[in-house]
Amino acid sequence: MNLIAGAGAVWAVAQLWTEPTPGWWFNLIFTVMLVGLAIALWAVLAACIRQAKLERGLEAQWREIRPGAIAAAGRVTGRHWVLAEDGSLSSFALIVRLGDGRALEGRWNPQSSRDYLLQTQVPGVGAEARVWYVPDAAAEAPLVIEVADASVVG
């Protein structure tokens, strides 16, 4: 798709500069717009590839360290969310404080636009959580935070 969009942008720019137009300023404005659009599409593709590599790396790292993981009880002490245009959550982060006083942060990002939550479904401050982590792992090692959906727990 990016190759087709890039080729279309090159063709349109070539047409702009070879066909009669209102002036060079017109050509320049639309050249910048078309080239910028093509560059933006490639930037989005590159960002998606980087994110996928990061997630695959975290999954592989978790598979490696999972046998040594332990569960610890904790409580949610903070939450931050980002809303989509329709009011649903596009992502959220929870800060969980464990019994020994350590604070850990976990983020949720949907895999697709079909996986969405409402604000009321984000666990509130004070909610119980269970954190699966490896005690001797590096600070950037993945962890799993289990928290009940606030909309179905009384």
Automatic annotation (TrEMBL):
Q: Which domain of life is it from?
A: Bacteria
- Which segments cross the bilayer? 28-49
Which keywords annotate this record? Membrane, Transmembrane, Transmembrane helix
Q: What is this protein called?
A: DUF3592 domain-containing protein
- Species name: Lysobacter firmicutimachus
